[in-house]
Structure formats: structure tokens, C-alpha cells
């Protein structure tokens, strides 16, 4: 089943995708709905008394607009580790983003004038359902509400200023997410899905989620030893090879470029790079 956050009569609302139409819920986004129902995404499907809107009239937004936490993995694909000339890590390489970093699945993204190394990274996004604290790898997937697509747009010049990734990963409104939250059963827990990214129609990344070094279950278990994962939180699982910084010569995004990011069975993002002052919708 697919769920979304949509623009409805000038406000954001969590909604259920029925193919030809979306059923509106009273919640402003899926993160808030998951918190209300303690992570039970299917409880939303029981809501019947609210309005519906034709699918052709829907504007899809980032499904998790208000996660309490956004945890990201770096260097989680062997081929990406190699192209970045790094050593394979013994433990997951974690960094965080903030809700203000996220943007909508089809929004334009402003290239900041201060960076000349704007890069792309298609990733599987994991949306947490049930709270997870000290969970085992065996039980970890029971805490997942569903999956989405993330493009971890990165600013390599800022990322490489220090040994910490954060400043190159949190530029405002630069990480598109969506367009749907797809339930676990639809994609077999994202075990082996094709992941692709194109720039202006040229294939840059072409990998599979089965190539992850640390699996989704291992990552949830590991993070849950550190802190409590809560309903509506987002984990972004890292990217395969093909990023701009790993190419010879390096290639980065410029205004006018269009990125198409897709994960098999989950959906696709389309984002145009624009200059400051341009419309982002």
C-alpha cells in the first residue's frame, strides 16, 4: 500500500493512495500520523469519513515533513567506498540531517552561490513505525512503517572542510524525499531493489539495494542501541557508486540540470537545479 503527504486546499495532509484517488486524513504529514497511531501505518487505512481527491489533482510533498530524527549512512556501498578512496568501515558511518534540510519530491533545488561542488546520491529511505530501542537485528524490520526515496544532495567542498560530514549535508531545502511511503510487503523490505539516478537523462548511478554493507535491519538495531528511534523518523541508507565526486574528472550540478532519482517499486524524484531567487515549486 502507498501513503503520501499532499497539498490539500492550501495545507499539507497525510493521505492514502488508492490509485485513482487519495483519501485525506486529518494529519498534517505521515510522521505526525505515525506518532498518533504509535507507528501503525495501516490504522490510517481505516479512516473513511474524510474527503477524497482525484489523483490527477494531487501535488505530492515529502511524506515525512516533520521527523524527529533523520539519520543517514555514509559509505555504505562497497563500490562507493572505493570511488571515494576510503577504507571500508567496521561500523556504520552515521550523520544527521534536520527537517529544514528536506524538500519535496518534485521541487526545484537552489544551488547556493557559496558552493561549486553540488553532488547527487540516490538512496533508500526507511520510515520508522514502532518505537525502537535496544532491538535485535532479527526484530528490527518489525519497527519499519515503510520505504521512500531520498536524494542525499551533498556539497562536497563543505563536506570535506573537516573530518565531519555534517556541514556538507544540511544545506536548507536540498534533500528531496518521496514521493510515497510504500509499505514493507510491497517491496520485500527493500532487500534487492534497483537504484538509479540520471542527470539530464544520462545515467550516473545504477546499483542495487542488496549491495549495502550494513543492511537495514543491522542499521536499525545499531542505531537503537544509541537512541530511541521514534515513529516518523527517517533513516537514509547510503548510495551506490556513480556520484560526481567519484568521477574523473569530477562532475557537479549546475543550474538547469535535472536529476531523476528512482528506487524500484518505491518511486522516483525529479528535481531541477536553479539559482537563488528562482521558484522552487
Summarize the structure.
The strands form 3 sheets. Strands 1, 2, 3, 4, 5, 6, 7, 8, 11, 12, 14 and 17 form a 12-stranded mixed β-sheet that branches. The chain has helices spanning 30-36, 78-83, 156-159, 216-224; strands at residues 2-8, 11-17, 21-24, 52-54, 59-61, 70-74, 93-97, 102-103, 109-110, 118-119, 122-128, 144-151, 154-155, 175-182, 194-199, 202-208, 234-236, 258-263, 267-274.
Oligomer state equals single chain
CATH topology category name of the largest domain: Fumarylacetoacetate hydrolase, domain 2
Beta-strand percent range: 25-35%
The CATH class designation of the largest domain is Alpha Beta
Shape call: globular
Poorly predicted ranges (pLDDT <50, ≥5 residues)?
none
Kindly, what is the distance between the CA atoms of the first and last residues, rounded to a whole number of angstroms?
A: 27 Å
Number of strands: 19
Radius of gyration: 18 Å
Main β sheet profile = 12 strands, mixed
Which structural traits does this protein have?
2 domains; 281 residues; mainly beta; 4 helices; 9% helix; five-stranded mixed β-sheet; globular; twelve-stranded mixed β-sheet
Description of the molecule:
With 281 residues, this protein is mainly β. The protein folds into 2 domains: 2-61, no CATH class; 70-274, Fumarylacetoacetase-like, C-terminal domain (Fumarylacetoacetate hydrolase, domain 2, Alpha-Beta Complex), CATH 3.90.850.10. The protein is 9% helix and 34% strand. The strands form 3 sheets. Strands 1, 2, 3, 4, 5, 6, 7, 8, 11, 12, 14 and 17 form a 12-stranded mixed β-sheet that branches. It has a 5-stranded mixed β-sheet with strand order 9-19-18-15-16, with no helix packed on it. A hairpin with a 2-residue loop joins β15 (194-199) and β16 (202-208). The mean pLDDT is 94. Belongs to the FAH family. This is Fumarylacetoacetate hydrolase family protein. Keywords: Hydrolase, Metal-binding.
Amino acid at each position: 500500500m502507498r501513503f503520501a503527504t499532499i497539498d490539500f486546499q492550501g495545507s499539507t495532509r497525510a493521505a492514502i493512495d488508492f490509485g485513482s484517488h487519495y483519501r485525506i486524513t486529518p494529519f498534517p504529514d505521515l510522521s505526525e500520523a505515525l506518532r498518533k497511531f504509535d507507528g501503525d501505518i495501516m490504522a490510517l487505512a481505516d479512516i473513511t469519513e474524510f474527503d477524497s481527491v482525484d489523483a490527477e489533482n494531487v501535488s505530492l510533498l515529502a511524506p515525512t515533513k516533520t521527523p524527529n530524527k533523520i539519520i543517514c549512512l555514509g559509505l555504505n556501498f562497497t563500490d562507493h567506498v572505493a570511488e571515494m578512496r576510503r577504507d571500508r568501515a567496521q561500523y556504520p558511518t552515521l550523520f544527521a540531517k534536520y527537517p529544514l534540510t528536506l524538500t519535496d519530491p518534485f521541487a526545484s533545488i537552489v544551488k547556493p552561490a557559496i558552493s561549486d561542488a553540488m553532488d547527487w546520491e540516490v538512496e533508500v529511505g526507511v520510515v520508522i513505525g514502532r518505537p525502537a530501542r535496544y532491538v535485535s537485528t532479527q526484530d528490527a524490520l518489525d519497527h519499519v512503517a515503510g520505504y521512500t526515496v531520498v536524494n542525499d544532495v551533498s556539497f562536497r567542498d563543505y563536506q570535506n572542510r573537516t573530518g565531519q560530514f555534517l556541514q556538507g549535508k544540511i544545506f536548507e531545502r536540498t534533500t528531496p524525499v518521496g514521493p510515497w511511503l510504500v509499505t514493507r510487503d510491497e517491496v520485500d523490505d527493500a532487500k534487492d531493489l534497483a537504484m538509479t539516478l540520471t542527470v539530464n537523462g544520462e545515467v550516473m548511478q545504477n546499483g542495487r539495494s542488496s549491495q549495502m554493507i550494513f543492511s537495514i535491519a543491522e542499521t536499525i538495531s545499531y542505531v537503537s542501541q544509541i537512541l530511541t528511534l521514534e515513529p516518523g523518523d527517517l533513516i537514509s541508507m547510503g548510495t551506490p557508486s556513480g556520484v560526481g565526486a567519484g568521477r574523473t574528472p569530477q562532475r557537479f550540478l549546475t543550474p538547469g540540470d535535472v536529476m531523476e532519482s528512482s528506487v524500484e517499486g518505491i518511486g522516483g524524484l525529479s528535481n531541477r537545479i536553479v539559482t537563488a531567487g528562482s521558484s522552487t515549486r
